[in-house]
Amino acid sequence: MLKTVAASCLCLLLLAGAPTAQPAMLVLDASGSMWARLDDRPRIAVAQDALAEALGRWPAGRPLGLVAYGHRRAQDCADVELLVPPAAAPAAVIAAASGLIPRGRTPMAEALRQAAAALGTAGGSVILVSDGIETCHPDPCAVAQELARGNPRLVVHGIAFALGDPTGLAQLRCMAEATGGRAFTARDAAELTEALARAAAASAPGPRAAAPRAEPVPPPRLTVTLRLCEGCDPINGEARILLRRGDTLIATDGDPFGRFFDLPAGVYTVQAETPLFRRPPVLVTLEASGIGRAEIILDAGWLVADVRTEPSGHDVTDSVRLEWRPLAPLPEEQRGTAARPSGSAFLVPAGRHGLLARTGNAEAAAEAEVAAGETVVLRLPIRFGTLALRREGFGPAMPRVTITPENADTPVFDDRPEEEVAMIRLAPGTYAIAAEQEGREGNALAEIESEATVEITVSAAE
Questions:
Q1: What's the confidence (pLDDT) of residue 7?
Q2: In this structure, which of 91, 196, 226, 259 has its CB flanked by the most CB atoms within 10 Å?
Q3: Which residue ranges does the record assign to the VWFA domain (predicted)?
C-alpha cells in the first residue's frame, strides 16, 4: 500500500510540470567516487536505477537532455559531455545514463555551463546530481550566479546524493539559490527518486538570492584526505579512517568526510583501510591551536566486473557471484577487512588482479592490470543455460534433487528446491537428474545449451 501511494505521489509531482513543457537538462555525476558502495551496490548503479524509475513517469512532450562528467578520463577537468540534447523522449536519457562508467573528476561548474548552453536563451531547468565537491573550478556558486544574470528563465536544482561533505552540500545549495532553484539531499535510492521527481516538478524559478555564497564550515581540528593517487580527487565512502592516540582508537571516519573535531593537542596516527587492503599509518601532530592535516595516498584503482553471456553478450553482472583474486598475495598487515567483498566494483591496490564469476556450476575468470587512479572494466564471458525443473508424484513435500554431469560422480546440485518450477543455472553439457522423497524416485536427462532454457519434468516412478 505504501509503495503504491509513493508511486502515485511521484507521478503527480512529475505531471505538475507538464503544462508548461519547459525543457530540462539532467547533469549526472560519473566521477570516480560514484563507485563507492551504497547499500552494497555502487552509487552509480543506484543512481541509474533511480533515474530510470523517475523518468519512467516523465511528462509526455516535455523535452529532456543529459550532460555527464567524469565518465571518460581520469584527472581531466575537461571531461564534460553533452550526451543527449533536450528532446521529448526520456528513453534516450535513460539509455545514455545506463552506459556511464565513472572514471574521473568533478567539474560541476563546467557541466552546469554546458547544460545551460544546451537549453539556450529560452531557459529551462537544470537538475544536477552529485556525490562530491567541485574539484575543478574555485567557485561554482559564482558560475551559477553568472548564468542567472544572463538568463532569468534558467533554474538550477541541486541533489546531493550520498554526500556528507559540508562543503559539497553548501556548493549545491548555493548554486540552487543563485538561480531560484531548490536543493535536495538523497541518502538512498528511494530518496533520490523522490528528489528527482520534486526537482522536475519545480520548473519555474523561485526568488533568487542576490549574492549567495557558500556558508562557512566550522573548522575541524584535523582533516584527513584520502586519494587514489597523487593528484587524484579526494574519495569518500569506500575507505575507513582510523584515528589512534597510542594504542587507543579515538575515532573512525570523521564527521563528516574526514573531519575530526574536539581533539586535544598531541600526537596521533591515522590509517586508512578498505575491504581489500589497508595502508600504513601516518603520524600527525596537533598543536594547541590551528588545523592539522593528513593525506593518505591509497595507490589504488577500481576494478569493475562486466559479466556477459556467450554468445549474445547479455549483461548478467548483477546475477552472478563475483570473487576478487589477488595475483600477488598481500602481506598480513596490508590485508583489508573483508575476505570476500560483495558487489561488482572492487577498490584494489595498484597491480595485477583477477576476478572469478560463478553462477550454478558455470565459471568465468579474467585478469587485468590496474594502475593507481585508474578504472578498469574487466569483461568476463560466461556460458550457461537454465534448467526449468518440475517434479510430479512425490507427495506434498518437494523431493531432494541431485544433478550430476554425464560421466561424473559428484553432483553439482544437491538441494530441495521449494519452487513449483525450480530455475537452475548450469554450464552447457548433459546432466543426470535424480529426485527422491520418502522412497519415491524419479530420473531424467537434460541437455543444457548456453543461453537456452530447457523444461524438464521428473516424475516419481510407479
A1: 44
A2: 196
A3: 23-199
